[in-house]
Amino acid sequence: MDIDVKNLHPLEVRLLRHAKAGEDITEAGIISGLGYKVGQCNQAFSWLQAKGCIEEVSRTKRTIYELTDAGRAMKESGLPAERIYAFLADKGAHTMPEIAEALSLEKSDVGSAFGLLSSNGALRLNDERKAETAGEMPQLVLTQRYLLDKAAEKGSIDESELSKDDKAAIAPLAKKRGASSSPFRIVEREDVVYRLTKAGEETKEALISADITGEEFGVLTPQMIQTGSWKNGTFRPYGINAPTSRLIPGRRNAYSEYLQWVKDKLISLGFEEFDGPLVENEFWNGDALFMPQFHSARDIHDVYYVKDPVHAKAIEEPWLSQVAATHENGWETGSRGWGYTFDHEFTRRQVLRSQGTVLSAHQLTKAHVPGKYFGVVRCFRYDQVDATHGADFYQTEGIVIGKDVNLRNLLGLLKMFAEEIAGAEEVKYVPGYFPFTEPSIEVHIKHPVLGWFELGGSGIFRPEVTEPLGIKEPVLAWGLGIDRMALMHLGLNDLRELFTPDIDSVRTRRGN
Amino acid sequence: MPKIEVPENIFFELLGKRMTDEELVDIFPVAKAELDGHDTENHVIKIELNDTNRPDLWSAAGVARALRCYETGEIPYYDFFSTKDDERPSDGRMVIDDESAIGIRDYSIGFAARGKTVDNDLLVNLIQSQEKLCTNFGRKRKTIAMGIYRSDLIKYPVHYAAVDPDATRFVPLGMDEELSLREICEKHPKGKEYGHIVSSFPRFPYLYDDNGDTLSFPPVINSARIGAVEVGDSDFFIEVSGPILDDLLLAVSILACDMSDMGFEILPVKCRFAKDTPYGREITVPYFFQKPMAASLELVHQKLGEDLTGEECVEALKRMGVYSFVDGGTIYAEVPEYRNDFLHGVDVVEDVMIGHGLSSFEPVMPSDFTIGRLSPVEEFSRKVKGILVGLGFQEMMYNYLGSKREYIDNMHVSVEDAVFIANPMSENYEVIRPSVLPCLLESESVSGHAVYPHSIFEIGKITVKDESDNSGTRTIDSLGLFSSNASVGYNDAASYINTLMYFLRKEYTLAEAGDDPRFIPGRAARIICSGVDVGVFGETHPQVLESWGCSMPSIMAEIDLNKLMNA
C-alpha cells in the first residue's frame, strides 16, 4: 500500500474509520454520523476518491427548493396575498394604489395578488372600485404559507416531498438560479453513493493499527500551552514534503555581492580601495597616462564628452606642467617624449571616465611607498550596447608601488589573482601593449568552466607616467576583466542582465 | 586594434616556411599578434595586431619579419637606406616640394620599386598595407596619405605644390571626366570621404610630373592614368604626403622594407623640401632617421628582476631584430629602420624581455607588507545595505547613463542640475543620472508581474552640477529607496528613515520639502543631519507614477551618503 496514513487529513481519517466495508457512504450519513458540514463532506469525498480509498457506486439527480433570503423575510412578514387580505379585513375597502402605498408593495405585486384572491372569491371590487373582502382565504395561499413554514425549518424542501397541489402552489414562488426577490430557488442536486475500495479497507486497517483517530491535535495554540491541554492527546504528524509557499525576502543584489567578494579578496591581499568622480578631464583620462593627445583611442568616437561645463577650471600643478613637458620632450624622465606641442585647452576638456587606470594615475599623487591600491570602478564606453558591451561597466584596476617591484613580482601578482580570484587551473603570460606600461603583460588563464581566456592586462608604468606625478619608484599596474566570471557566477550570458531593472529577475537571481 | 587578412601562400613565403595554426598561436605573441582566424577554404590567415605603436607589424611582411627574426636570430639587412652622410644613388628620380604647400600639408616624399610583376593577391596585399598605414597610423589620411603610381609613365622630377582648386583639373581614378580639385571633393566618393582634410584651405595639394601630367590630388585621389596601378605592372613610384616628416619617413621605410621582403628592388628618390628640417633641405629616401636608444643594464635588472648579462641582452634584442652592443654597463640599441617606438630605455627593456622569453622569468610575490582597507564610503554603504535588507528591501543595480525622458521629463524635475553628454551615441544614453530614483521607478514600471510589495533600493553614484567644484560637477554616492503597495504611505517612509537613522546612530530633524514635484505636496520631508540637508523622502506624486505608467501608490527616499556619513 502506497498511502502514508500519517499524511491523511483528520477529515479523511475519521471518515475511513467510520465507514464499514460494503456499506453505502453518503453525504447524509456522514453529516449525521460524524457531524461534518456539507463542505467538509465534499472535501473528504474528493480527497479519498483521488487516493483510491472510496469509489462511486451510484449517482441520483434530484430537485430541491431552497428558501432564499427574500423567502425568509416573506415567512415573517407574510405573502403579498396574505398581507392584502389582512389589511382589507382590518381597515375596510381601499383602492389598489392605496393598498400598494400602505403596504409598501409594488403595484404589480398588488395587482397579481388581487387577481389570485378575486378569482377564488376571497376579494372583490365594490361600486367605488375599491377592493374589499368577500370570502375565505383560498387553499392555494394556505398551501404556500404551509410550504414557507416547512422550508424555514430545514432551509429547503425536496421535490419528492411535494404533492401535486403543493407543486402548483410553489411554482409561482420559485425560480431557477433565481432572482433574489423570489422566495424559493430551484436547485438541482446529485446524491452520490460511495463504497470503500479494497485500498480504502486496507488504509482503514492501517489507521486502526497505527492508532490514528483523526482526533489528534492540529495547530498548537497559546491556550493549549497555557491550560496544559496538549498533554491530553497526541499531535497530528504533518506531511513534511507538502508544497511550500514562496517568500520574498529582503536581499542583496547577486552581482553586487560578487563585486563585494572581489573587493574582500583584494583587501585580504593587502590592497587599499580607491574611488573617484565619474566626470574626468582629458588630463587625467589620457595625458597623465602618457597617451599622446592625438592617440586614436582619444578620438571623439571613443570617449563621451561632457556638454556643460565643457572644460574643467584648472588642472592641478605641478602635475600639469610636468606631464605637458613629458609629452613634448620627455621632461626629466629620460624619455624623448612624443615630440608635439601639448594642447593646454584640450587637456581641460571634460569626459566621462573611460578607463579605471585613470584612478590609478590619481592615486599616484597621494600614494604611500610601499603601497597597494585597487578600485572596482564604473567606466563609460563609446560603443553600441549589446550582449557583450554595456554603455557603462565595472573595471577592476590597481597598482603596486615599491622600491624593488619588478616584472617577476608582476607575474607573481597575476598568478595570485588568477588562482585566488579566478580559480585558474593554468596561467599563461604573453607580451601585451598598453600606452602607459612598458613592459606590458597579458595574463591568460585556463578556467575550470570557461576554458582559456584573457583575465587581464598589466605592466610596469612607464617612467613618463610615474615621474611627472611625483613617483620615483617602480609601479606595477594591473586590470582584471571580471565580467565574464561574474556572468558565469550568476548563470547569465548577457552583460546587460547585470543591470536589469526587472525586480522579479533580481529577486530570484543567485550566485554559484 | 588593427586586423589584417593575408593569403596563406604570401605569408608562408615571407616567413620562409609553413606553420600549423597551433605553431602560429604559440609564436604570434612575440609580435604581440593573435591568430584571429584561418579561412582554410579561401586560404586566408586573419591576424589581430595589439601594439598600436608598431605600424611595421600591420602587414604580412612585417609580422613574418618579426617571427623570422625571433626564430633565426638573424637581423635582416636593407641596403637601400640613405643617411645624412651616406646617400644611395637616385639616378635622377626626384620629388620637389613647393613652398606653396607649407602650412597646408608640408611634405611629400617617395621612393620607387621594380622587379616584380604584381598578381592579384600581391596587389590586394600591397593596398591593404597602404590602407593600414594611412588609416590607423595616418589617422584616416590626416597625417599620412599614400599613393602608388606607374613609375614608367612618370617624367621626373615629380612636383608637389598647393594649387588653385578651381583651375586645376584632371581625370580622377574611377571616373571618365575631368574634374577640378574642388569638384572632386564634392562629387568623387573619395572626395566626399577625405576632401574635408584640405577643403578649408585656399589652395589644395597637387602632385604632377615634369610633363605636367597629374599623379594625384593628395590626400584624396590618384589620377586615372599614372595613378592607376593594375595586375601585371612591375614598376612603381610610391609617394607619401603629410604634415609630420618623421611619420612620413617611417611609413616609407615600412613599405620599402615590406616590398623588399616581397622581392622588389627598392630605388631611392631624392626629395627636396621647401623648408628646413632636422635632416636638411634635401635627403634621399628611404632615409634612416632613427637615433639609437640606450638603456643601462641596471635598468634592465631593476625592471625585469633578473640579472641578465650584457651578452644575454644583446642576444635577446637580436631575436627582436634589434642590433645592439654593450659598453660600460649600458646597452646601445640601433633602432631598426622600420620602427620608431623607442621613446625611453624601458622600451629596450621590453624587447629584451620578449627576446629572452617571457616564460623564463619565474613569478615571485612582492615582499612589501601593506594593509588592505575598504574606502570609508564602501564600509558605510555596507552598513546601510545590511539595515535595508533587514527591512525587506531588495538591492538593485543600474546603468548610469540614460535618456532625458527617463531622468528629467518623467520625474518632472528641472533639467538644470543634470550633466549631459555632448556626443551621445543615442538618445537612450545622453545623460548621467542625477538621481537614483528614476532607475527605481523604471524597475517599478517594468515589474507589474512581480509580487507586491516592491521594496527596492540601490547605492550607487549620481552626478549633478556643482559650481563650486573644479569640474563644475559633483559625483555623489547616493542611496535611493522605493516601496510600492496598495496601502503604502508617508508614515511607512518616515518609519523606514527613522529605523535607518537609529541604527546608523544619526540624529536628524525633518523640514518641509517645499515644492518638489516628485512628491505629493505636504507629504514629503527633507532630512536634516547636524544642520546639513542630506536627503528627502515622501509619497510619490501620481503625476510621476503616471509618467512612468505605474498605478501602484509608492514612497521613495534619496540620501547623499557622503554627507550623511560625515554628518
Question: Keyphrases for this structure?
Answer:
heterodimer, A: alpha+beta, BirA Bifunctional Protein, domain 2, 3 domains, 19 helices, elongated, B: 567 residues, alpha+beta, Phenylalanyl-tRNA Synthetase, Chain B, domain 1, Phenylalanyl-tRNA Synthetase, Chain B, domain 3, seven-stranded mixed β-sheet, 16 helices, 29 strands, 29% helix, 27% strand
Q: What value does the Rg of chain B take, in angstroms?
A: 33 Å
CATH superfamily of the largest domain in chain A: Bira Bifunctional Protein, Domain 2
Radius of gyration of chain A using CA atoms only: 46 Å
Helix percent of chain B reads 25-40%
Quick one: overall form of chain A?
elongated
What features would you describe in this structure?
The complex is a heterodimer of chains A (512) and B (567). Chain A has three domains: 5-53 and 197-218; 67-187, Winged helix-like DNA-binding domain superfamily/Winged helix DNA-binding domain (Arc Repressor Mutant, subunit A), CATH 1.10.10; 256-508, BirA Bifunctional Protein, domain 2 (2-Layer Sandwich). Chain A has helices at residues 10-18, 27-34, 38-50, 69-77, 80-91, 96-103, 107-119, 139-154, 164-170, 198-210, 222-227, 254-268, 282-285, 319-329, 357-364, 407-420, 463-466, 483-490, 503-508, and strands at 54-67, 123-125, 131-133, 156-158, 174-176, 184-196, 272-273, 279-281, 350-352, 371-380, 392-401, 426-431, 437-447, 451-461, 475-480. Chain A has 512 residues and is α+β, with helices and mostly antiparallel strands. Chain B is α+β, with helices and mostly antiparallel strands and 567 residues long. The radius of gyration of chain B is 33 Å and the shape is elongated. In chain B, 29% of the residues lie in helices and 27% in strands. Chain B has four domains: 3-72, 2-Layer Sandwich (Phenylalanyl-tRNA Synthetase, Chain B, domain 1), CATH 3.30.56.10; 94-285, Phenylalanyl-tRNA Synthetase, Chain B, domain 3, CATH 3.50.40.10; 293-359, 2-Layer Sandwich (Phenylalanyl-tRNA Synthetase, Chain B, domain 1), CATH 3.30.56; 376-566, 2-Layer Sandwich (BirA Bifunctional Protein, domain 2), CATH 3.30.930.10. Chains A and B meet through helix 12, strand 7, strand 10, helix 16 and strand 12 of A and helix 8, helix 10, helix 11, strand 20 and strand 22 of B.
